[in-house]
């Protein structure tokens, strides 16, 4: 699994330099102008509470009467924020106008070089989303298009937005995207998320006022990426399993066989002697059965699915039962080099906690590496060749 996510809009609001608070009042009624002026004052007051030394505040409308953007400066450093009309700050970013790429952490550099080789870096935003989670917002130019990408605190890719190609960027008509919390979503979308564990959400507002909602939420170890239109209708749903199945082989007595298998043997192999049986469990649930029986020196091996339905029979060879085992990995030195290379690029400074390898007939099937990165613990999964599959942060 290369990208545990879907691509959704997250356009970077440009940092503008201005000497006063402002909202464009052209072609607006006096009533609307008064409303916007009040909103600008409220947004400015909210920003001033968190950033008392903020100057050059510029307030713009993202979603009329609902969400506003605010660009400002603190001690000469550019910042940007999105603020709800209620006064709730939805996101804040410190903008580093560093085009030398030194402002990027290594994991983001690796991602951009891999997927956008030759890109031009325009801006790096470091801050928090509406849920208070650390995030990076990066603006690049690639193949004559401006692309905004969002990453989490580890540099893991979360989302991206590609602006349409044009001779000259049009900030006024470009889609505006902002982070929202669960309670900020429309009620009909919230109701559809019942039973999910909410992760994050974003709203894209187009120049014509139409909206798209992008939501990430989990059920158990499955991450769902949901897209809703402005009316709250679900338009797409992607599922990514974050946890590898746990395989277990269990030997069975004849009395422990499922009734379906017992009935099949009684009907088709009456008088045969039960020799051996196994069940392969996947996440504690039966995945398949293998049964060996004998008669007059002849051995038959029968295969059944997880429900006990007959699949095939092999005669007269003795059964070949796959051997599964879980083997601990003692240290980082015992990891395949390809896994260490990946961890060194994506989790710079990682510390090995423990690891394990799933073997089938002594051949590697999958790897699990538990690491500490900063103050967080991560479970990182790789396939039998050491290729990255998924990563899960321990809560």
From TrEMBL:
Pfam families: PepSY_like (PF11396). InterPro entries: PepSY-like. It comes from the Bacteria. Residues 251-311 form the Putative beta-lactamase-inhibitor-like PepSY-like domain. This is PepSY-like domain-containing protein. It comes from Arcicella aquatica. The lineage of its organism: Bacteria, Pseudomonadati, Bacteroidota, Cytophagia, Cytophagales.
């Amino acid at each position: 699994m290369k990208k545990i996510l879907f691509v959704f809009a997250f356009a970077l609001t440009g940092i503008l330099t201005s000497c006063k608070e402002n909202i464009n009042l052209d072609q607006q009624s006096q009533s609307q102008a008064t409303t916007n002026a009040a909103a600008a004052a409220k947004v400015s007051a909210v920003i001033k509470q968190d950033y008392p030394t903020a100057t050059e505040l510029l307030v713009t409308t993202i979603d009329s009467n609902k969400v506003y953007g605010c660009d400002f400066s603190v001690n000469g450093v550019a910042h940007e924020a999105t603020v709800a009309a209620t006064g709730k700050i939805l996101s804040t970013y410190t903008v580093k106008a560093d085009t030398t790429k030194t402002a990027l952490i290594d994991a983001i550099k690796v991602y951009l070089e891999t997927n956008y080789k030759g890109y031009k870096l325009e801006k790096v935003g470091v801050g928090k989303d509406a849920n208070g989670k650390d995030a990076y917002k990066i603006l690049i130019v690639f193949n004559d298009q401006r692309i905004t990408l969002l990453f989490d605190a580890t540099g893991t890719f979360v989302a991206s937005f590609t602006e349409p190609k044009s001779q000259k960027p049009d900030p006024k008509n470009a889609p505006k995207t902002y982070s929202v919390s669960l309670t900020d979503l429309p009620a009909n979308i919230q109701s559809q998320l019942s039973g999910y564990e909410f992760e994050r959400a974003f709203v894209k507002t187009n120049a014509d006022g139409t909206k798209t909602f992008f939501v990430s939420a989990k059920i158990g170890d499955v991450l769902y990426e949901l897209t809703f239109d402005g009316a709250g209708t679900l338009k797409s749903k992607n599922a990514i399993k974050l946890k590898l199945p746990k395989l277990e082989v269990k030997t069975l007595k004849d009395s422990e066989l499922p009734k379906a298998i017992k009935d099949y043997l009684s009907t088709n192999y009456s008088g045969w002697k039960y020799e051996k049986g196994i069940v392969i469990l996947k996440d504690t649930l039966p995945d398949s059965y293998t049964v060996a029986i004998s008669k007059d020196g002849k051995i038959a091996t029968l295969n059944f699915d997880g429900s006990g339905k007959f699949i095939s029979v092999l005669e007269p060879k003795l059964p070949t039962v796959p051997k599964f085992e879980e083997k601990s990995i003692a240290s980082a030195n015992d990891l395949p080099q390809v896994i260490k290379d990946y961890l060194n690029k994506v989790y710079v400074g990682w510390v090995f906690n423990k690891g394990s390898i799933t073997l089938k007939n002594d051949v590697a099937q999958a790897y699990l590496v538990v690491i500490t990165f900063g103050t967080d613990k991560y479970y990182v999964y790789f396939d039998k060749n050491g290729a990255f599959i998924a990563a899960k942060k321990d809560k």
